[in-house]
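Morning, I've got a small favour to ask if you have a moment. I owe you a coffee for this, so here goes:
>
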Amino acid sequence: MIDRFDRVTEPQRECLRLVLTRRNSKEIALALGISPHTVDKRLERAIAAIGATSRFDAARMLGEYEGAPPAPAPAAYEPFVYQSPDIVPPAQSDMIGVSEGLALRGGSRGAIAAWLPIRSKGGRNNTLSPWQRLAWIGMIPVALAIAVGMLGFGLSVAGKLLQLLTSVMS
């Protein structure tokens, strides 16, 4: 058992020691000033030299060999690095329903934006419910028809005023 740990180089041991402190490849790379790819290669070679099944198993075995105390269990899961902004932590607010969504968007300014079919600043997508989306699908053609009608009425009034002015001027 001793000879397999002799095949592990000191840079590989450094990486395994940091794995024992529950760090990932990016954190280990940052601590050692190397690339995450280099960390992964060092760990792969160390796992093969020790004959372990995973990086954590290899780190545990090296820790036992070197007499290091076992690493404490993590208190809670860490959040995802690229966690969706739509996922709200459960104990963050005591508000419910739409009020919670409005509060997260910034109060009264957010209240107006909550009903518009646009995404919030920094958001990946809009937060309209299916019923709000259907309402907008119905409101957009109606608003377009009203706008076209108002434009036509305005142009006809402008034409009649122009005729009236030309008849008065002549």
